[in-house]
Amino acid sequence: MSDGFVVRTDREAVDVDLVHHWLSTESYWAAGIPRDTVARAIANSLCFTGLLDGRQVAFARVISDFATFAYLADVFVLDEVRGRGYATQLMDAVFVHSDLQGLRRFMLATRDAHALYARYDFTSPAKPASLMERYAPDIYRSA
Ligand SMILES: CC(C)(COP(=O)(O)OP(=O)(O)OC[C@H]1O[C@@H](n2cnc3c(N)ncnc32)[C@H](O)[C@@H]1OP(=O)(O)O)[C@@H](O)C(=O)NCCC(=O)NCCS
């Protein structure tokens, strides 16, 4: 598909204000997140920016040691351009990226997009009882 949608991984491609606005007002996982927290997360992640005719319409970032482990976070496509395969193109770019090959574990959390990630061999954890987390879902609301 080449309708003007491209994926870039350089930091300069990221529209930090757009990502912050979407995450803080539209996401179900990071409502109220401060802009400087988003900027720090972007600076320390491998970011995948989906551009449509030069304007950012999609985003995902990967937190990784680029050797053994990675975590996929903050995946979104702007509402007005959903259903055109852009999330699929974004995920294709993530999972073929040369720095993200041969990892022992790749993780993510999702409320309802399991089908999107199942295409890339993601499953529910085989041994959920072995996983632990320290989770503060309301951390941005209470700040
Ligand atoms: C999920 C999301 C990124 C999909 O973007 P999109 O560009 O519409 O996705 P695509 O057009 O590439 O299609 C994705 C495929 O995954 C499927 N899918 C699975 N879960 C989905 C979900 N929650 N929302 C949309 N599509 C979903 C679609 O049905 C589609 O399958 P199809 O090609 O067989 O029809 C987008 O709906 C979004 O930004 N949602 C809000 C944020 C979100 O939930 N992000 C994921 C957090 S883990």
Ordered list of secondary-structure elements with their pairings:
Blueprint: E1 5-8, H1 16-25, H2 35-43, E2 46-52, E3 55-64, E4 69-77, H3 86-96, E5 105-107, H4 114-118, H5 139-142
Parallel strand pairs: 4-5
Antiparallel strand pairs: 1-2, 2-3, 3-4
Helix pairs in contact: 1-2
Residues 75-77, 82-88, 110, 112-113, 115-116 line the site of coenzyme A.
Question: How would you describe the overall organization of this protein?
Answer:
- The protein has 143 residues and is of the alpha+beta class.
- It has helices spanning 16-25, 35-43, 86-96, 114-118, 139-142; strands at residues 5-8, 46-52, 55-64, 69-77, 105-107.
- The chain has a single domain (5-142), classed as Gcn5-related N-acetyltransferase (GNAT) (Aminopeptidase, 3-Layer(aba) Sandwich), CATH 3.40.630.30.
- It has five helices and five strands.
- Strand 2 and strand 3 form a beta hairpin.
- The model has no long low-confidence stretch (mean pLDDT 96).
- Bound molecules: coenzyme A (COA).
- Coenzyme A binds next to strand 4, helix 3 and helix 4.
The number of helices is: 5
Gap from first CA to last CA: 43 Å
The helix-and-strand class reads alpha+beta
Beta content = 15-25%
How many structural domains in the coordinates? 1
Low-pLDDT parts are none
Identify the notable features of this structure and list them briefly.
143 residues, alpha+beta, Aminopeptidase, 5-stranded mixed β-sheet, 5 helices, 5 strands, 27% helix, binds coenzyme A
Brief rundown of the structure:
With 143 residues, the chain is of the alpha+beta class. The protein is built from five helices and five strands. A five-stranded mixed β-sheet has the order 1-2-3-4-5, with helices on both faces.
